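Same chain as my last thread, 179 residues:
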Amino acid sequence: MKFLVSSLSLIFTRKDSRTVIILSTVIFLLLLLILKNGLASNEVLNFKALPISKRLLLSLSTLFDIENNFTSSTLILATLGSLLGGINISLAYTYIKLRGEVILKSGLYSGIGLFFAFLGIGCAACGTALLSVMLSFFGFSTMLNILPYQGEEIGYIGLIFLCFATYSLAQKVTAPNVC
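reply #2:
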């Protein structure tokens, strides 16, 4: 647990890591808003009866409308998931900054290997996103209605996996450079 605190204090004290946390968290939240409200916002923007200034204001207010499309639990999931995703990406960025040069000099990885190593230590939820798209292609997404909370359980499980990924990445960041 000590390494988790030291890793988190490291990324919060580095200015570049703080910037990565903020940018990735904001990008994740914007992507969630676009997924939830993007279609309605685009339809408002294409409504020709209003002047362009009114359409832009109405489209932006539709895009950032969280009251009508998020329940309290999905809002908590979205916020915590975005924040943990930002911390995870910042930990991966710091790991690459601190260890990347040593890994490249040791001849263990080539440039493409380092890129794949970066993807491998990233967010654990990315695999579940790909898996859910593939399963919904075969019709398994309708089975979420059978679950007691209509699939919100999957979000909480993804959040737990993201916590485990952050924990293991924090171990790697504070690990010494030797095997």
